[in-house]
Amino acid sequence: MTGVIYQIYPRSFQDTTDSGIGDLPGITRRLDYLADTLGIDAIWISPFYPSPMADFGYDVSDYTDVHPLFGSLADFDELVAEAHARELRVIIDWVPNHSSDQHPWFQAARSSRDDPKRDWYLWHDPAPDGSPPNNWLAVFGGSAWEWDEATGQYYLHSFLKEQPDLNWRNPQLRTAMFDTIRFWLDRGADGFRVDVAHFVMKDPEFRDNPTAPGSDLMPRYGPAYETQDHVHDKAHPDSHDVYREMRAILNSYDGDRFAVGEISLDDLDRWAAYYGDELDQLHMPFNFTLLTTPWEAAALRRSVEAVEAVVPDGGWPNFVLGNHDTPRPVRRLGQAHARIGAMLLLTLRGTPTLYYGDELGMDDVDVSPGEMQDPWEIRVPGKGRDGCRSPMLWNPEPGRGFTGPGVQPWLPFLENLDVNVATQLDEPMSMLNLYRALLEIRRASRPLRLGSYRALAHVPGQVYGYAREDQDETVAILLNFGDTPCEVSLAGHEHDVWLSTSMDRSGLETGPLTLRPNEGLIVRDPPVIQASGTSG
Ligand code: NOJ
């Protein structure tokens, strides 16, 4: 998968029923935008399954259907057919770690200790004093164990108590879950984004996690969660078998079916292990390092190269700049650096994933307490994800092209009326036109799509420079993270500037190459590249 993935949060993309919530026919309606206006290669759609929506669809109550809010299976089929007609691939979210507590499997499991599905979830007796069996914590706050009065045991939930963890050590559960991926593959899905893929297997002895600041922490998790070293409640080595089996199923279908896993591990060797030694597990574990690395040249270079160093031979890197769990690039980095981020995302070696609305430079929306939706914010204040999930902005009209005029969207619209597709298409230097230009250049340039990566030596400290090379073609990318101009000494006196993040500069330039403050440049066929470090 060397193309560009575009993530759609379906509640927020396009509403066709005036419910204030987006739906699958809405995505179908916007496929021309995705295929032609932008020119991406695949869409990943966050969950649209039946769900009580305790975690907005990441609590699935039926793995093989569509929530009526989002449409029907027929709408999904139509979406796939229309996407394929435009050569767009369709990747759907698959949530194997936990179901909803309203899933019939869990309802059966909690009905009695003797129910045949009891063991499809993770139950445990209390500690002698009646407290939870171990110290494991839920990502969304509090103990990961919930007491079930009726059957006198605790069940495990790594997220909300409404999201009980499935027991992947039970063979019937495993078969039932793999049947759910066959269901979607048979309907034409091109692949899956696997939710918290590394959580599926836990320590079978349920040992306490050691308290340790250090490895495998995700900075965005709450402070209590970060006091533990999560060695026993996630990324257990047995997880790898699950993905070997999943890969074998994908391989048994025609047409390069694909899996990308949500795997957040600071230990990059453990992270890369999900490619599989024989490249027989996930096609890619999502790489979130651009979300957490300090935003300056040297740190980013180190971070990119740390990833390059662990991706196995024959494996393919990937980069993420935004998603539905993280403040948007404009919020994190500001407008100018969000433009540098766009250039970085679309020129590094690997598959970029672009989050809907980031191509407009959408900021996070500020949500008042009364408008708050995210259960994480309600449980761990400050962790909320509503800000980055506000509706897509198609035009400046009432309803913003997302929903009907006068309809209340499920989250407020961003107020800035200039941020929308229609307006930005007419502004030559808009963020949308920058993304379009980057996507076009990427399509046109074999080095950018497939070439190797080499860092450029002898660039000023505030610049991150790298070359992408393929056969005898080279493209250089120079990103100035500083507030001051600086010169970069590429050999030769003529430079073919392909694109500037400011979009006011292209063509042949003579003399030394000067980067303006906070500017990124793509330079075509630089005469001589001084480089340090190679990969690819
Ligand atoms: C990761 C997803 O990205 C997030 O949105 C969700 O809340 C958790 N997994 C739980 O499924």
Structure notes:
With 536 residues, the chain is α/β, with parallel strands linked by helices. The protein has three domains: 5-98 and 171-441, Glycosidases (TIM Barrel); 104-156, Oligo-1,6-glucosidase, domain 2 (Alpha-Beta Complex); 451-535, Golgi alpha-mannosidase II (Immunoglobulin-like, Sandwich). It has 15 helices and 20 strands. The protein has helices at residues 24-29, 31-38, 73-85, 104-109, 171-186, 239-251, 268-272, 289-292, 297-310, 329-333, 335-347, 375-379, 421-425, 431-444, 446-450, and strands at residues 5-8, 42-45, 89-94, 123-124, 145-148, 153-156, 191-194, 258-261, 284-285, 318-320, 351-355, 452-456, 463-470, 473-480, 486-488, 494-500, 507-510, 513-515, 520-524, 531-535. It has an eight-stranded parallel β-sheet. A hairpin with a 2-residue loop joins strand 13 and strand 14. Helix 11 (335-347) runs parallel beside helix 14. The longest helix is centred in the N-terminal third of the chain and has 16 residues, at 171-186. The chain is globular. 1-deoxynojirimycin binds at residues 55, 58, 95, 159, 195-196, 262, 324-325.
